[in-house]
Amino acid sequence: MSGLKSILLHLDTATTISQRLRCAGTLAQAHGARVEAMYAVMPALLQAPYAFAADGQAAALLLSGEAEQRERARAAFERERAGHPGLTGASWRESDNEPLRAFTQRAWSADLLVLAQHDPASQSYAGVPPDFATSVMLATGKPALVLPYIETGPALGDRVLVAWKPCPEAARAVSAALPLLQRAREVHVTLWQEAAGDVANAPLPIETFLERHGVHATVHRDGKAPRELGDLLLSQAADLQADLLVMGCYGHGRAREWVLGGATRTVLGSMTLPVLMAH
After folding, report:
1. CATH code for position 58
2. What kind and span of H or E run contains 16?
3. Over the stretch 206-218, which tens digit does the pLDDT of each residue have?
4. What is the pTM of this model?
């Protein structure tokens, strides 16, 4: 990705949408990008169709609750837009269709998607299925910045860890992350024996690629990739005090039947820092 000019941000009913808005605004301000915030959740009619068919009072209550949730999200959007210079030109869009389909249709015109990690401990339904982020990445092929449900602070892309392996997913993730890598204070690339090649001290293709784009990276050549690679990546990110992890999104299958790769599943389940992914 040669530039970052359009950011599509997903909003739902979770309490973390203000954090997402601020993050998208920070990216937009740094890169001269425009943010489009899209509120897309499962409509009440699709969640409980029998209630609409059998009980008018129940249907009215569902519609009232749906409207209240949408207005809370819109109020958060307006509040953050008024207070963040990167969101001054942000636009609001909402959908009354199935959220994955609706968001996917808007994603084609965006350079980067901003999505949220599923919070398994949340007591409330956020309006989208737990696999929404991965389903969006698979359906669109677009790079996505996935934000953890915990607060991570304002820093993003100051110190970046890139998980490299010679494969299409990792290559797409690195290309998508270039605008952030070029502005980073530190970039670290971690790779394993099978990705390092036979010549221990020879420049690697990923090093050459980054250097050609003005990114100097510190390369960490490790041994054989462990079984619990996702845990190792998160541990390395913590040791380096990274505020962004860049990696491929691995898996196989189709949409809801997609099976995540082990490292992807671990990172998306346990991440405590933003992760830029591409499938």
Report:
1. 3.40.50.620
2. none
3. 999 999 999 999 9
4. 0.90
